[in-house]
Specification:
- By secondary structure, the chain is an alpha/beta fold.
- The chain has 6 helices and 12 strands.
- It folds into 2 domains: 28 residues, no CATH class; 241 residues, Alkaline Phosphatase, subunit A.
């Protein structure tokens, strides 16, 4: 008998012992974060959750209906750069501005993954070349690329979005994606970012559902309001569609990614629990 069947048989025996049948047992979400083959996280810019709804963002809205959307999702601070750093390392690293460049030697998600024999790549749209360390080029801004700030992340993990593979099975374990300053909604409209997301990542979103993979769509911060509530959606395998009122932050998202691969929680992520209520 397989391990899975043996576990099911034991569970059924326990249920019968307390007067329940397997058929009558209530269905509930799994409590552990699944171990995904691939996670892709894409971050947009400077919009509150209330702006990313309905006809203003039709693809975001349609994608949210396919996954779990968090109605109480919050950024860490203002402005942009410390939020990117916080999600990647569990700390803002003392950064309070968008000034460039920054350089750190501390722990981070990329180094955690490679240290565990897994892989990480960051893909930045508009970056002129792989491994680029400059502060800006055209519509590219390093302030939206947190992985380049850490000396423990190799230059080979800092790639242009043109390198994002068409064969999703070849993706690294975890990928972060930063659209350029127009497509991330910083300098251009919500409609522009909405179209970009559909054109560039809907294929992965649909593939992820049947290939043990996950897409996370989120924002760095809101439109500079005190509340700092942002749109965050998880779409993919094992995700139960619906809305969740569980309060989460960038640290919660980091903690959830770490939990998927059995990694220790970094910094602020150690102060929160991973997301568990959405998995089926």
């Amino acid at each position: 008998m397989s391990v899975q069947r043996l576990g099911a048989a034991i569970a059924a025996t326990v249920l019968l012992g307390v007067g329940l049948t397997a058929a009558s047992a209530p269905a509930r979400a799994a409590t552990a974060v699944p171990g995904f083959d691939h996670i892709v996280l894409v971050m947009f810019e400077n919009k509150s959750a209330s702006q990313i709804t309905g006809s203003s963002a039709p693809y975001f809205t349609a994608l949210a209906a396919q996954g779990a959307t968090f109605t109480q999702s919050y950024a860490i601070t203002h402005p942009s750069q410390p939020n990117y750093i916080a999600l990647f390392s569990g700390s803002t690293q003392g950064v309070t501005s968008d000034d460039c460049p920054k350089s750190f030697t501390g722990a981070n998600l990329g180094a955690q993954l490679t240290g565990a024999g897994l892989s990480f790549t960051g893909y930045s749209e508009g970056m002129p070349s792989d491994g680029y360390t400059g502060c800006s080029s055209g519509n590219y801004r390093r302030k939206h690329n947190s992985w380049v700030d850490f000396s423990t992340v190799p230059a080979a993990a800092n790639r242009t979005f043109a390198a994002f593979p068409a064969d999703y099975a070849t993706l690294p374990t975890v990928s972060f994606v930063s659209p350029d300053m127009c497509n991330d909604m910083h300098d251009c409209s919500i409609a522009t970012g909405d179209t970009w997301l559909q054109r560039n990542l809907d294929g992965y979103a649909q593939w992820a559902k049947t290939h043990n993979s996950l897409l996370i769509v989120t924002f760095d911060e809101d439109n500079y309001l005190a509340l700092n509530r942002i749109h965050t959606t998880f779409v993919g395998a094992h995700v139960t569609p619906g809305s969740s009122a569980t309060k989460i932050t960038h640290y919660t998202v980091l903690r959830t990614i770490e939990a998927a691969y059995g990694l220790p929680a970094l910094g602020g992520a150690a102060q929160v629990e991973p997301i568990t209520g959405i998995w089926s």
